[in-house]
Amino acid sequence: MKNPIHIHKKEILKRYKPIDAHTHKGIQGHALLIGGSYGKIGAMSLSSKACLKTGCGLVTVFIPRCGYEILQTANPEVMVLTDVQEKYISKIEFDFMPNAIGFGPGIGQEIETQNALHEFLTNDKTPLVIDADALNILSQNAAWISLLPNKTILTPHPKELERLIGKWNSNAEKFEKTVAFSKLHHLIIVMKGAPTFIIDGETIYENTTGNAALATAGTGDVLTGMITSLLAQSYEPIDAAILGVFLHGLTADIAFPETGYQSFIASDVIANIGKAFLSLEK
């Protein structure tokens, strides 16, 4: 594999856009997050809160009806749209133009949900982040991958990546197959792990932040919210992926002296996003 570009603060500052002092919510982007199913509404709660905390002006979620009260209570700043179904996503309908869409946290793999994803992708042209079971649905319906807009960001963990690109026998082969997949479909792959790599065709970036504290439930949902937020704020897809991954890891580095590895949870990522941003401006 080609030598990766290491993502340090210097590299981030080339891409980071400080907030204009005269901005308002209407020009900070409107993100839509689609996901959730019965018992997994928490994934959408985490993802949408992270999306707001990363600077997005407006955040709307589209969830099954069972999550309505939960989301309105947990995140009062987030707007909520619901599916006709109680427990899972079956038909995606919204009447506004989001600047970016994050798809997948907690969504499950019901057949109606798979059909809803297919119908959504057939009509969608909005910049997109795909995560979790939405990735697993794509790996079962490989022809649908061609429907993804160019530079869609996929955020697989190792097992989800394997389902997408097939098994590998060595680290070198894993990168070879991921690069080939990225080039073939014009996609950006956030290869989650320790460290996390971001693959954009032949170009490979290696993140330098983060630690073992991130190995806990929900941190991937938070990352999806963060990257979707940056995409909605009109960052280029590759910059949104790189900056999102860097800040996400940085929260664990900042919190570590107080939490250690064991007691750090996904909500601690969200709680430290502000400090991560502030550290860029020092």
Fill in the keyword field for this structure:
single chain; 282 residues; alpha/beta; ten-stranded mixed β-sheet; 10 strands; 14% strand; globular
Architecture blueprint of SSEs:
Elements: E1 5-7, H1 9-15, E2 30-34, H2 41-53, E3 58-63, H3 68-74, E4 79-82, E5 100-103, H4 111-123, E6 128-130, H5 132-140, E7 153-154, H6 158-165, H7 171-185, E8 188-191, E9 197-200, E10 203-207, H8 219-232, H9 237-259, H10 266-271, H11 273-280
Parallel strand pairs: 1-10, 2-3, 2-5, 3-4, 5-6, 6-7, 7-8
Antiparallel strand pairs: 8-9, 9-10
Helix pairs in contact: 2-8, 5-6, 8-9, 9-11
Describe this structure in words.
- The chain is α/β, with parallel strands linked by helices and 282 residues long.
- Helices cover 44% and strands 14% of the residues.
- It is built from 11 helices and 10 strands.
- It has a 10-stranded mixed β-sheet, sandwiched between helices.
- The protein is globular, with a radius of gyration of 18 Å.
- The model has no long low-confidence stretch (mean pLDDT 97).
